[in-house]
Amino acid sequence: MIKLLTATGKLTEALCIHLGLYAATFTGTVRRMSSKPWYLRMLLQQAEEVGVQSLPVVMLTALFTGMVLALQSYIVFHRFAAESLTGLVVSMSLVRELGPVLVGLMVAGRVGAAFAAELGTMRVTEQIDALWTLSTDPVRYLIMPRLIAVTLMMPLLVVIADFIGIYGGYAISIYLLDQNPSVYIENTTQYMELSDFYTGLVKAGFFGILIGIIGCTEGFNCKGGAAGVGTATTRAVVISCMSILISDYFLTAWMFA
Amino acid sequence: MHEHPDLRLLPYRMDVRMSSEAILPRIQIRGLCKRFNNNTVLEDVDLDIMPGQSTTIIGMSGSGKSVLIKCILGLIKPDSGEILIDGENWLLLKEQELLLRMQRIGMLFQGAALFDSLSVWENVSFALLRQNIGKKEARERAIEVLEWVGLHDISDLMPAELSGGMAKRVGLARTICHKPDIVFFDEPTTGLDPIMSDVINHLIVRLHKDSGTTMLSITHDLKSAAMISDRIALLCHGRIHRQIPSSELDSDQDPMLRQFVEGRAQGPINRSHWGQKIEEAIQR
Asked: Which of A250, B40, B89, B279 is surrounded by the fewest CB atoms within 10 Å?
């Protein structure tokens, strides 16, 4: 019993420390955004790294998700002779949920890990200390551009993923399942609202903040050499993915209540 | 070693060495304490470093040398005490004020700590580029300083392409490129072969002679300590146990200093704190 209590206490303590660190990183970074320097070159580099470099993986994920959604939806709707709803289900699912969540998970795996590994290596090789001694604020120079880049790029990636996913579903429905293209498009556009689209983008921006803060905080506070960098990277990916899935429920409950 | 007589490395504080007003220590450390959990690393450290003086702190591994230097630089927050640079208590400064003061500071890290994503010249001129100095001018200055440390035609290489000795010299070039008036060295010769160590030592001596920069180094390397510094301080059991002119390193009879200089496993250093554990390990 005492062991269980001790373990629970330690877990709670670790959780509180981590939440505190994330909050401190977030507030510290946001506070710095109001004043110069903004390191725009770094921001563009990071935007390219987060946005452009993530495009192939995001596009591929979205395409196949749209395709499999169309296939599965068609099989189920066929039982009720409601195949014409396939397009609507594919679009709604992608735009509201799967687009932001899947892109979030992909970016967490690719970019969150890269943030943690890069900053973690800089920490253990004293490069972050060196920045300080060269009169450069490490939070402003390293974390701020990454956080802004991932927060701005996530909604853009989700827009692209939405379109590609919907096209994937369309292609399967029309060319494989012989559905009528005009009925498919009409059903899709008729019942979809603009709010379905932008709530997905709000989610994407929020997930971007989570990925940026978790990845950067884990790397920035990394300890213990190469093993520490490995631990920080793993933790960044796991915590980011879990946070995306958990917060998605609460965001959905809040936005569509 | 390539000489570059035109290099203006002399910082604006050169005159302080000769000035009659140079009685105020450039660095004053008073009662500095730092604990990590239950482990007291620094316990009431007092140290004065005069303008233009080169001081080296020696001590066992884990004696707190690096912690001391990181406390001075604001990288670690001490539990208590004062750190005065030119009479100003740096522990009372806000983060932004401290960052501004860092423009006067240079630091050579043990592993050089070059930025992997930047080329050699961008590393060397990093501080200049942050001070809104033009790219062309910063690059010229970087090449000039790289030549001063004996490195030619490597300005466009990436840090991963450099050997340990080259990386250390690039690190030294980055340390002095913005003409700091206080320079810190963390184990400047560790991990280098004897010849490269000698090259680094000579560069540090030359920098000190040419510019009169105030220097604080930490090292295990006694040969290096004797060569690069005017004074040597032994950090032991969390305090500055003894300070002597470097010329007296071989003749001073302090038992702890003697044990350290002679590299004996047994002696007074082991009789307290973590030293007790070393003694036990030897007995086993």
From this structure: A250
